[in-house]
Write a sequence for this structure.
C-alpha cells in the first residue's frame, strides 16, 4: 500500500463509503468489529487525529470528484475491499458496493476480484490464484517463478520418505544460511540465523524448508518485530501487505479471510475473531510507511551484515510505541 494524506473532505467521503459498505447502505447494522475497524483505519491509514462520523450511509454521489488522484483512488478501493470480510460473512451486497465504487473511481484492483471469489466461496480458485502469484513474487528470490520454484512446491507437499529426503538437501544453500551464525551479533544475518534456530524452523536448503524466497517472510518478522504466534503472524501479514505493492491485497485479504472470517483458503491454522483492529491496521500503516518494499527487488545478501536497528532506521520503519510493545508482549506477539 501507499501512504495517503486525504483532506478533511476526502477523508469524510472515504469514511462515509466505508460505513456504506459495512452496512450495505443502511440495510444492515454496523457491527462492533466494523465500528472499531473503521475507527482504526481513520487513525492509522487516513491519519486523522479525531474520528469523523458520516452524514449518511450511502456512497457519496460526488465520490469520484472528491477522490480525484489515481493513488488515493486505488488506496481507497483497497481499504474498502477489506471491509466486507470483517463481519465474517463476505456478503454479496457489500461486495457489489466495493465493485461499484471501484468502477466509479476507474480502479482495476486485483483484490476486488479476490473478494468476489471469497463471496462466491470459490476458495480453491482463490487459493490457486494466490499460490500462482506467491510462487513468483514471494517464494522465488528473483521475483519470477522459475522451474525450481514450482518443483519446490512439489517437494514441500511430498511425504517424508527416508532416503529420498536426503537427496533433496541443497547443501550449498543450507551451508550459506548456516554461515549466518558467524555474522556479528545484532546484524540481520545473525538475527535471521537465530530466528530459524530458536524456533526450530528448517533453514533454506533443508528438505522440509520453504523455498529460499520465503526467507523474506522471516525478514519481515525481524524488521516489524512481530512474533510467530497466531496473532503475530496476522500482524506480520498486515505489515507485509502494507509494505508491498504486488501482493498487497493477496496478503491482507488472506489474513482476514483465514484468521478473522474463519475460511480455510490455504493450508494452515483457521481462526475466527482473531482480528484486533487497532493492532492490525497499525501494522498495515507501519508497513506502508516503510520505504523499502522487501518483496520488490530487495536483496537479502546485500543486507545481512547490516545491524537490524540501522536497517529499521534506513528503511524508516515506524518504531513500536511503549504501549504497543506492552500489548504485544502480553499477547505473545512481540518478537523475542
Amino acid at each position: 500500500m501507499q501512504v495517503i494524506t486525504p483532506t478533511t473532505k476526502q477523508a469524510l467521503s472515504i469514511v462515509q463509503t466505508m460505513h456504506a459498505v459495512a452496512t450495505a447502505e443502511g440495510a444492515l447494522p454496523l457491527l462492533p468489529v466494523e465500528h472499531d475497524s473503521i475507527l482504526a483505519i481513520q487513525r492509522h491509514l487516513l491519519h486523522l487525529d479525531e474520528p469523523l462520523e458520516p452524514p449518511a450511509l450511502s456512497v457519496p454521489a460526488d465520490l469520484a470528484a472528491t477522490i480525484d488522484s489515481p493513488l488515493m483512488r486505488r488506496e481507497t478501493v483497497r481499504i474498502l475491499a477489506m471491509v466486507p470480510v470483517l463481519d465474517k460473512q463476505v456478503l454479496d451486497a457489500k461486495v457489489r458496493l466495493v465493485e461499484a465504487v471501484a468502477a466509479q473511481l476507474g480502479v482495476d484492483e486485483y483484490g476486488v476480484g479476490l473478494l468476489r471469489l471469497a463471496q462466491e466461496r470459490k476458495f480453491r480458485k482463490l487459493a490457486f490464484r494466490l499460490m500462482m502469484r506467491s510462487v513468483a513474487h514471494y517464494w522465488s528470490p528473483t521475483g519470477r517463478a522459475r522451474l525450481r520454484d514450482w518443483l519446490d512446491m512439489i517437494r514441500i507437499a511430498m511425504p517424508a520418505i527416508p532416503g529420498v529426503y536426503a537427496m533433496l538437501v541443497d547443501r550449498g544453500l543450507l551451508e550459506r544460511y548456516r554461515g549466518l551464525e558467524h555474522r556479528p551479533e545484532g546484524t540481520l544475518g545473525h538475527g535471521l540465523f537465530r530466528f530459524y534456530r530458536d524456533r526450530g524452523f528448517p533453514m533454506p536448503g533443508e528438505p522440509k524448508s520453504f523455498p529460499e524466497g520465503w526467507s523474506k517472510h522471516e525478514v519481515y518478522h525481524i524488521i516489524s518485530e512481530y512474533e510467530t504466534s497466531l496473532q503475530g503472524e496476522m500482524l506480520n501479514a498486515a505489515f507485509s501487505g502494507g509494505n508491498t505493492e504486488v501482493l498487497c491485497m493477496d496478503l491482507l485479504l488472506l489474513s482476514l479471510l483465514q484468521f478473522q472470517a474463519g475460511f480455510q483458503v490455504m493450508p494452515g491454522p483457521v481462526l475466527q475473531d482473531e482480528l484486533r483492529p487497532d493492532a492490525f491496521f497499525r501494522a498495515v500503516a507501519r508497513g506502508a510507511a516503510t520505504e523499502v518494499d522487501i518483496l520488490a527487488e530487495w536483496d537479502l545478501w546485500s543486507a545481512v551484515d547490516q545491524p537490524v536497528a540501522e536497517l529499521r532506521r534506513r528503511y524508516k520503519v515506524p518504531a513500536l510505541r511503549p504501549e504497543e510493545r506492552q500489548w504485544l508482549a502480553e499477547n505473545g506477539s512481540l518478537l523475542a
About this structure: The mean pLDDT is 93. The CA atoms of residues 140 and 258 lie 24 Å apart.
